[in-house]
């Protein structure tokens, strides 16, 4: 454990070598001196604490927070020196905050411990000492041979040795790792594939050399050296082994063979075995070195704008606190300069006090004043904010408007720390495929040998005359149906051409669709082939008999299209790919797969046809395939691809190449060398792939449609109206991306589209950017849209960031195409660090979107068809792009307003709390006498004033949600953190000081000259004076919260008036009983005595009304002379559909004068009772037909009005 911790901290390199050597079954060499490498065990640790380090580690983390550390210092000062208040006043709130946070974090970590123990204690089967033994997962060692059965998860990263299939293949699903639900095929090397029993595996002596652990799920390089095998293997297995070895002639007779290992041989921990009875694999990475564990990425600590403002305000209040302490200390010594005040007759100094150091005395007094005023810093603010964020996040998941019935997905909140940031977004960066579109691909058109075809009712029909035909409307299905009877061609009404030309055309079509059927990674879960392909494949012919699974929806759509047109991919049988062409079964031997990678942007397969020919089929983007072609209708196909892209279709080009025997031997040799290399394997493979994928003959291109999601156009338009700039970042061809942008409303037809494409050098890019910048400045009247591709973007970001950003900021919409995942993140990073520091939001659905989701201030994952990796790594997850509007305009708006008020209200009520304490020092010769009792000091923020603001921050709706949805422009009113601006902060601070002055001097004028306010002549003391100030303060700050509340529920009433009632009841019990556990009870009978005075009651009411009157006057003035956009929107909505003066209020006719006055006050204050609420919905609402949000806490009946 300690070694692992040191490795994570970077102090202890985990391994000295770049590779690791693993002896299968831990059979180490017996000769010479050999020291085996040390590897960690298979224990998974996701917990943060242990029983021994929880207390110190948790305390260390909590005291890293400035406020906690500050109160700890104050508490220690109170313990060390004589301070006017008890250490309990600081210690108890601090203890409460630390305890609550520790319990929350400890409980969460305890759940992680339970999960870890469950995983680590799972039973597994391991081959040891020639037998199969049961052990626990945590006991697996590197080199152990592990048996995994069907539907079980792999307990470690295993290299596949054998399966129950003769070819050593198995199917797995990695949905828990990358979210891909398709079945992936993994294969063992032929030499070990035949070892299907424990006894046979016990004879295996082999060594695996592979790279050290890394987090990349799709990268693995290694090789297996087999030094000895038992020769008494059944002859059947041996003959099968020979047939498998024919793929590589270099290893026919070698007694010590080396076999390459790649990602296809590695079974990842967390993946699950499917459609295979059992497999045997050797553990190469265990425990926290497995790829799954290395991908345990803790959420990046994103800080919201509100939190940053909170810290700024905290620093300001610290300055106020220190200033008050310094002023009080200086005034104390100024006052005591006179001898009569320095040492009055009733308070003589001791000899020790007279001889003590003046500097130390000054510091001690300064610290004492610091303790006296320390409650101006609201320690409970952090706890309340955390509770508000945590509890408030449930409203998103409960909102039925964010629930997608088709997929049965509701909105998810992965982090609650950014709720308010949803109300501050200025830039939205969105992926296209699967985010703006459905990611449901449908084959639409294709180009074969320069002729365009489209699918109509399951038939492939040409759009124009073929090169060898004078008539159009060629039906390929009709011609294919006569593939085996060419004598019918001459008489076919739909295919009038000569037999020779017809045969050539059919051959081209046949080769094109065979390339589609063979060049892919599609899997079939169940195959029923008895009647498949026996005739023309019509669109209504038993498509359910074959169920294809693919990691890419494009591949699945293309293979299904080929099946509809008569060439049906049946499946893989070992290394044999079976295809039926109109009932005739053909078997192609799969020799090599050249996997897709984002740099090449293509994939290839090398197959051996039934006739013995060795063919290369290539599929990829036109930008990567067409330059490698030397034959075929290249220019015509390029034109067709551009036409497809303009229609918004996704395009792929198909090409092939035929190898001679000599060429294939050279290719096979180079592939073997590259795949067995342990150093720079990827670079060597890229070079070999480039050598193979050249001199291609172009077959044609395919075009599939990915339709837009519902209400995408309306959502993008709403975002634009809200002042949010939308950027689309995609990997598609720029014509396709622009077409989709136009169709979804991202680009308008009237928009001037600027292009930064195909830039080759820095100078060329700089010149082009300069031209674009001049055009933007000159044509500032019209809107501009910018299209930039990945290559040009790399050049722009390298040397011309400022110029590029100037162009982008002046464009209404930006489209970045041909983007790599890291480029997406870099663009967002560039916007984040720009001088304006805008708040960014990234939304995507695939694994390639994770980098930009994590880079943006707010990351939103779409729970789509490309898996769940984006959703898992995001801050929030929704099922459809259209839900983004309500997430921002309603939830984001409410969250921001609530927490902005919460933060400022906390500082306001603490200014009200401590300022009278500061003013009181002027009347007690700065003797550090406290104005309030210690219990009141402790409970003010914890009990008396905490609940009303917490409930407000959870339930407040200052405007109807329906209005916010219908009027996105209201989102602009809260942008750029306006509610927490310095102007608003100063208003709340000044308001707090003014109320504090009224509390203090109002009470002073009442009893300052005459303290006998009771009928029996009893006098009020200083504790009564402080209690009077405290009582007025509790009532005023609670009533102030009531004035700020617009949406009243029974919960608001309960906590608001209940808090005041609780204060009175508590004070009566606290001061009315002599508590035996209290050493001193200064408040005994004080509160009862105070309430016995009619003058005190009158003063309390007068001061509360005076304080609140200022607020009411300001609200009336602002409402009538400076109404906000929200107030205007409420009035507009009232006149149009809601039929109420206020969108939240309705009033009956025939009301009395008093009721009319009350109505006016409710109008100007902006609040009303839920029982009077009426909302009218119409079917023409732009986003949602009804508001089913959990935010609607009261019954809304339109008949009320």
Automatic annotation (TrEMBL):
Cofactor: Mg(2+)
TM ranges: 66-81, 312-335, 366-385, 887-908, 935-955, 985-1007, 1019-1042, 1054-1078, 1084-1110
Annotated P-type ATPase A domain residues: 123-183
E.C. numbers: 7.6.2.1
Residues the entry annotates as binding ATP: 431-433, 555, 596, 619, 650, 730-732, 818, 824, 848-849
Pfam families: Cation_ATPase, E1-E2_ATPase, PhoLip_ATPase_C, PhoLip_ATPase_N
GO cellular component terms given for this protein: early endosome; endoplasmic reticulum; Golgi apparatus; plasma membrane; recycling endosome membrane
Compartmental location: Endomembrane system; Membrane
Key words, A-Z: ATP-binding, Magnesium, Membrane, Metal-binding, Nucleotide-binding, Translocase, Transmembrane, Transmembrane helix
GO MF annotation terms: ATP binding; ATP hydrolysis activity; ATPase-coupled intramembrane lipid transporter activity; magnesium ion binding
Membrane topology label: Multi-pass membrane protein
Family membership: Belongs to the cation transport ATPase (P-type) (TC 3.A.3) family. Type IV subfamily.
PANTHER family per UniProt: PHOSPHOLIPID-TRANSPORTING ATPASE IF, PROBABLE PHOSPHOLIPID-TRANSPORTING ATPASE
Name of the protein in question: Phospholipid-transporting ATPase
Lineage: Eukaryota, Metazoa, Chordata, Craniata, Vertebrata
